[in-house]
Design brief:
The complex is a heterodimer of chains A (468) and B (474). Chain A has 468 residues and is of the alpha/beta class. In chain A, helix 8 links the parallel strand 8 and strand 9. The two termini of chain A are 19 Å apart. Chain B has 474 residues and is α/β, with parallel strands linked by helices. In chain B, strand 8, helix 10 and strand 9 form a beta-alpha-beta unit. Classes of the chains: A alpha/beta (468), B alpha/beta (474). At the A-B interface, helix 4, helix 5, helix 6 and helix 12 of A face helix 6, helix 7, helix 8 and helix 14 of B.
């Protein structure tokens, strides 16, 4: 029953389009051959609009980047069984959360540990993040952390509360304040481990506060280097950077596995800590698991060092020289707006033009604007030999001309964008056959035909079966 | 009591050592005869002991930074805590926040230095009446306070303190990891970048705060009716200066108070409660107020009303009887200057101020005496300083006395401030073998209106005479 109703509706889709279409002939694609297992509430499915499903509370400023005429954005209160893209923050995404219609997933934030990225790659779904959107928010919290690690401010504030409760704040404050004094940042040395968006901004601001800066980053990019203070002293190892430093900030990503295995789990361990000054202040606003708690505990017990972090710490959370904040690094309106806006723009670019930027699993891919009278095909395939040849052959055999194309690969996945000319063809250009042919090439995972109609043109090769 | 040959030799020994130190006044002229300890000092127990030491006696209240105290050359200064001195006379006092009583200021004290900016803990008008300059250390604490203000900017932007305390609670219940991502939403907030910071008072601390705010991406607005050139050079180029506190705060997201506390309401010319209803009503409803200057600048009632009405914040390192437990207030102990660096710098600055006064008669950083600095003469002059009440005719009477004793004045300077005047006079020994200044000193000191005089010729601890209620103390 659903089948027939859907088939009926599919005739309505055959209308000339809207998005970025300039005088294109009527394009026909297959749609809704009824293999999609999750229709959900078909009555509420907005035809002609991309459906975006969100998890967590996404900033309205970011969501407003999706033009209402072309995008139907649904939060968790509304069913979104035919979502074309998913937007989320820290929700732990299950495979079940991802309908088969989903073309892309965007995370408003930097880390993607909450998304099964490897599985999404297998399914040919690019996962995007928002590098740099949170940078200023995290940087400001790191600066706050440096100051909290210099005088016993938190202890002092709590002490004032208990004096207040006893009604003796004024009498005791001058005498008791001696317990909470400390030192200044000015003139001290800050070592920044990891000089990406956050690390480089932290280095620059610390220098303007009068600190000497040391840094370490084996993969320092030119873009980041331009942001660094000229006076920075670059070391060639973490140990060399932290030796002699009064403050140390870790700003590297968390990669599963020990350092020997190529990961960063527990990278700040006994070995590196042995180079710390006894009263060094360690700031960890990157990831809790970067620090080896046991080694940190020993360090704190043996000197007057401090550990300030916005990640939970099972072993040290109540140590007198430790300050643990909630994970507030990106918890500002500005960062939420910036991340959501960046994620929305990334999804729009992908859905409307096939461009890939800021993806954690797919290669950066960008082809100039689709020319007039061209239809854009995108093909996701496993990175195995021979696929490209089959692809171009398929178009040739249908007498379709490729005007421009690009092919990029990354790890196990490859991505192609091809602009196919419709000139010289009659009024109706039928891509049904060629799409099926291409999609069923061995190694191809999915294909899309982008010609301005939201929600149509996506086909998948699911274990040898053609889904469209 | 005249100076013995031994003392003279010691004085010459001082002189040669003195040549190694900068700014040290040394004297290689004729022997000076002067009165010492002949009358009046009621609290000198061991006269012989005191006469022999030939060092300045410096006594301290509170724990003064050892680095600061180390700047006093041991051969010329005895430094000890007042509590350990057992009544031994002091020539200068150094203190931090100890509440100084008049009884603690012996007759031999020439000056008092406070390691810090405010001098509310010292009875300054009474010290002025006694002719005792009180020094402070403006700017020594500036970086320490500024860094705490910066911390306050961040603590007022996200609920950092509440969040930390919440994490402790969660830790005690063993549910930190499970709850942190969910609960963190209670403690988020905003960034300072792109926001507007209003700085009220643009002295050492205010100007440094404005500059750092600007380098962190803030727009800055400032108000200071007495903006000095030195401070203006320190301000961010993009700062807007306005002509009233209300204008400054009107569009500000963050407001920092950096003005001194002066007793009396604004109408009376003071700054007590200057941040009151009239100013507070111009605040944006979510403005963050930072008060690291003085608690009494803020009218607590007006502040409480403001905090209750909107989403504003009050961050301060002074106690507040009304707002201390408000959910939108963060009250720290008075930690603005509580860093090793500030304590060292304040102590060093205070020590330097004292040394300059005792050894050269130079006055700088005094809260009650006028700045006075007469360059040291190449010639072997004897320097005399005179403190007098600022009444008409004093200068001519003093010069008359010097003329009457046939003593030539090589150079002199005279400054006044409020009720007090200060003179530094360099006398020319004119090739004489000895100079008897006993009578000269007595005559000058006993002039109506003179409070004290000193003869500086690098013998520490001698040459100070006072006119106390018509009695001559020397």
């Amino acid at each position: 029953m659903i089948l027939s109703r859907f088939a009926l509706k599919s005739k309505q889709f055959q209308q000339p389009v809207r998005i970025a279409m300039r005088g294109l002939a009527d394009v026909q694609v297959e749609h809704g051959r009824a293999q999609w297992a999750t229709y959900g509430d078909i009555e509420n499915y907005n035809q002609g609009k991309y459906q975006i499903k969100t998890f967590n509370k996404i900033s309205p400023v970011g969501l407003s980047r999706f033009p209402g005429e072309e995008y139907d954005v649904r939060g968790q209160e509304k069913e979104a069984a035919n979502a074309h893209a998913i937007l989320l923050r820290s929700h732990k995404l299950q495979e079940d959360d991802v309908p088969q219609t989903v073309r892309a997933i965007a995370r408003c934030g930097a880390g993607t540990n909450n998304i099964p990225v490897v599985r999404m790659t297998e399914l040919g779904i690019p996962v995007f993040n928002t590098p740099g959107a949170n940078a200023n928010a995290v940087k400001e919290l790191v600066l706050c952390g440096m100051l909290l690690g210099s005088r016993r401010i938190v202890d002092g504030v709590n002490h004032m509360k208990s004096l207040g409760e006893q009604g003796i704040a004024r009498e005791r404050v001058e005498k008791d304040k001696a317990m909470f004094g400390g030192r200044e940042l000015k003139g001290k040395t800050l070592a920044v481990i990891g000089l990406g968006h956050i690390g480089s901004m932290t280095a620059r601001d610390a220098e303007s506060l009068g600190m000497k800066i040391k840094g370490y980053d084996p993969g320092l990019s030119i873009e980041a280097a331009l942001k660094l203070p000229n006076t920075i002293d670059l070391a060639d190892s973490i140990s060399a950077a932290v030796a002699g430093a009064d403050y140390i900030s870790i700003n590297i990503p968390y990669i599963k596995g020990t350092p020997e295995e190529g990961g960063t789990h527990g990278i700040i361990g006994k070995d590196i800590i042995s180079h710390f000054s006894p009263d060094a202040v360690l700031l960890n606003f990157a990831r809790g698991e970067l620090v080896d708690s046991e080694a940190m505990k020993e360090f704190l017990e043996s000197g007057n060092g401090r550990y300030v972090s916005d990640f939970p710490e099972d072993l040290l959370w109540n140590h007198e020289n430790v300050v643990i904040l909630p994970h507030l690094g990106a918890s500002t309106e500005e960062a939420e707006d910036a991340a959501a806006s960046m994620a929305a723009d990334t999804i729009r670019d992908f859905l409307e033009t096939g461009t890939i930027v800021n993806s954690v699993n797919f290669p950066n891919t960008s082809l100039p604007d689709r020319p007039e009278h061209a239809v854009r095909f995108t093909v996701v395939n496993r990175n195995i030999p021979g696929v490209l040849a089959h692809l171009t052959e398929a178009f040739a055999s249908e007498k379709l001309n490729i005007m421009q194309q690009i092919n990029q690969s990354r790890g196990e996945i490859a991505y192609n964008v091809l602009d196919i000319s419709t000139e010289g063809h009659e009024n109706v250009v039928d891509f049904k056959n060629v799409q099926e042919k291409i999609t069923m090439i061995d190694g191809v995972v999915s294909t899309r035909v982008i010609y301005g109609t939201p929600g149509k043109g996506y086909a998948k090769n699911l274990e040898g079966e053609y889904f469209i | 009591i005249t100076m013995s040959a031994l003392a003279l030799a010691r004085s010459r020994a001082f002189a040669s050592k003195a040549a190694q130190f900068k700014n040290l006044r040394f004297y290689t002229g004729p022997e000076i005869e002067f009165e010492h300890l002949s009358s009046g000092w009621s609290n000198v127990e061991d006269l012989e002991e005191f006469k022999k030491s030939g060092r300045y006696a410096l006594q301290t209240f509170n724990k003064i930074s050892p680095q600061g105290l180390a700047t006093y050359p041991k051969e010329e200064y005895d430094v000890e805590a007042y509590a350990d001195a057992n009544g031994r006379p002091a020539h200068a006092l150094m203190l931090r926040s100890h509440k100084l009583q008049e009884e603690e200021v012996g007759t031999s004290v020439r000056c008092i230095a406070r390691c810090g900016a405010g001098t509310n803990n010292i009875p300054v008008p009474r010290m002025t009446e006694l002719g005792i300059p009180v020094f402070n250390t403006p700017g020594a604490n500036a970086n320490a306070v500024k860094e705490l203000v910066l911390c306050g900017l961040f603590l007022g932007s996200r609920r950092v303190i509440d969040g930390i305390n919440h994490m402790k609670d969660l830790g005690e219940q063993g549910v930190a990891r499970e709850r942190v991502e969910k609960d963190k939403a209670m403690f988020g907030g905003r960034e300072i970048k792109g926001k507007t910071l209003a700085v009220i008072g643009l002295g050492h601390i205010g100007s440094a705060t404005a500059r750092d705010g600007a380098s962190l991406g803030m727009k800055t607005v400032g108000y200071d009716p007495g903006l000095s050139v030195e401070s203006a050079l320190n301000l961010p180029k993009t700062m807007t200066l306005v002509d009233s506190i209300s204008s400054a705060v009107a569009n500000a997201d963050y407001i920092s108070l950096n003005i001194p506390y002066i007793k009396g309401t604004p109408e009376e010319g003071g700054t007590h409660g200057i941040i009151g209803q009239a100013v507070v009503r111009h605040f944006k409803p979510d403005a963050v107020i930072l008060n690291f200057a003085r608690g009494e600048l803020v009218d607590s009632d007006a502040m409480k009303g403001f905090l209750d009405a909107g989403d504003g914040r009050y961050i301060s390192d002074f106690p507040d009887d009304l707002c201390w437990d408000h959910k939108n207030a963060v009250i720290m102990p008075h930690l603005g200057a509580s860093t090793e660096e500030a304590e060292d710098q304040a102590a060093c600055m205070a020590a330097e101020t004292i040394r300059q006064y005792l050894q050269n008669g130079t006055i700088r950083h005094s809260v009650n005496f006028p700045d006075t600095d007469l360059a040291v003469q190449e010639k072997d002059c004897v320097r005399v300083t005179v403190v007098n009440q600022n009444i008409p005719g004093m200068l001519s009477k003093m010069t008359e006395v010097f003329a009457g004793h046939n003593v030539n004045i090589v150079q002199q300077v005279n400054h006044s401030k409020g009720d007090i005047a200060y003179n530094v006079i360099d006398l020319d020994p004119a090739g004489a073998d000895t100079m008897n200044l006993k009578d000269l000193q007595k005559e000058v000191t006993m002039l109506e209106g003179v409070l004290s005089s000193r003869i500086l010729f690098s013998a520490p601890g001698v040459g100070y005479a006072r006119n106390i209620d018509g009695k001559y103390h020397v």
